[in-house]
Amino acid sequence: MRIKITLSSEKSGIIDFNYQHQIQALIYGFLSRSDPDYSQWLHEQGYIYRRDKRFKLFVFSGITFHKPIKAMRSNGFRYPNDLNDLHSLNGFLFNGSQNVPFTFSFQIASPVNKFLQHLIDGIFREGNEITLGYQMVSISRIEILPDPLNSISLHPLESPVFIKKPMPPGQRDMYLFPGDEGYEVFLNRNLTRKYEILYNKSFSGESLKFHFHPAKGKSMKQFTIFKEGLDGNRKYIHIKGTLQPFTVTGPGELIKIGLECGFGQNNSMGCGYVEEYKMV
C-alpha cells in the first residue's frame, strides 16, 4: 500500500536540505503513538535476514513542493530559536500565509499490514498539528494511492536508488551506479532477500532486468542522514544514488517488492521510492 501525506503551513519557514531523517523521525513518531513497543522494535531491530541483515520493509519518498521554493545557504548553520531569523539557515525556504498556505507532500509505502495499521492509527492519534524538524505544520490531507503494479516504467521520487558495495577491511565501501559491474546483481539480491523475509521462502524465479534512461535535469541525489544508537551517539551516513528513470521487466513478485519496500538499500532512510514514469 502507498500513502500520500500532504502538509501545510500558514507561516513562512524552512526545511533542512537533509530532511530525510526528519521524515523518518515523523514516521516512527506516528508508529509510537499507536504502539510504542512496535515502533521501538522496528527502529532498533526490524526484520532479520539470516541473522545479520536487517530490513525495515518500508520506504518513503522525498518531498514534493507544490509551490516555488528558494534554496538558502549560509556558512554558519544553526537551528533557529526564532523562525523570523532565516538569513543564517540552510534549507528550502517557503512562503506561507493564512490566506495562501504553503503545501508540500511525501509518500510512504510498505507491504506489511501491521506497519500500515499503526501508521494510519498513529497519524489520527497525533492530531492535526505536527512538528517536522524545527517547525510546526498541519496535516491537510491523507490519501491511499493506487499501486502502479502494472507499470514497468518507473522513476525515483526525489528518493535515490542507493547501492553500496562492501569492500575488504581497510578499503572504503564503493558506491555503485547504473552501468557499473554488479549493479543489477545487487539490486536483485536485495529484492530477493526482502521477498524471503515477507514470504518465509526462497525466491526461485528469474532475475529482474533493468534499463536505465538518461535523466532530464539532475541524475543523482546525495544527502546525509544520521542513525542514533542506543548510547545516544550519532552515526552519519552519506547517501549518494541515482534518480534516473528506468524500465524493469521480469517476475511481478519482485517488482511488487520494489514498489512497496523500495529498490536498493536504506529504504527506511528515504532511498528507492519510485512511482510510475510516463515515457515520452
TrEMBL record:
InterPro entries: Cas_Cas6_C (IPR049435), CRISPR-assoc_prot_Cas6 (IPR010156), CRISPR-assoc_prot_Cas6_N_sf (IPR045747). One of its GO terms (molecular function) is RNA binding. The keyword RNA-binding applies. The keyword RNA-binding applies. It comes from the Bacteria. Residues 159-275 form the CRISPR associated protein Cas6 C-terminal domain. The active site is at 28 (proton acceptor), 43 (proton donor). It holds the Pfam family Cas_Cas6_C. Belongs to the CRISPR-associated protein Cas6/Cse3/CasE family. This is CRISPR repeat RNA endoribonuclease Cas6. It comes from Candidatus Jettenia ecosi.
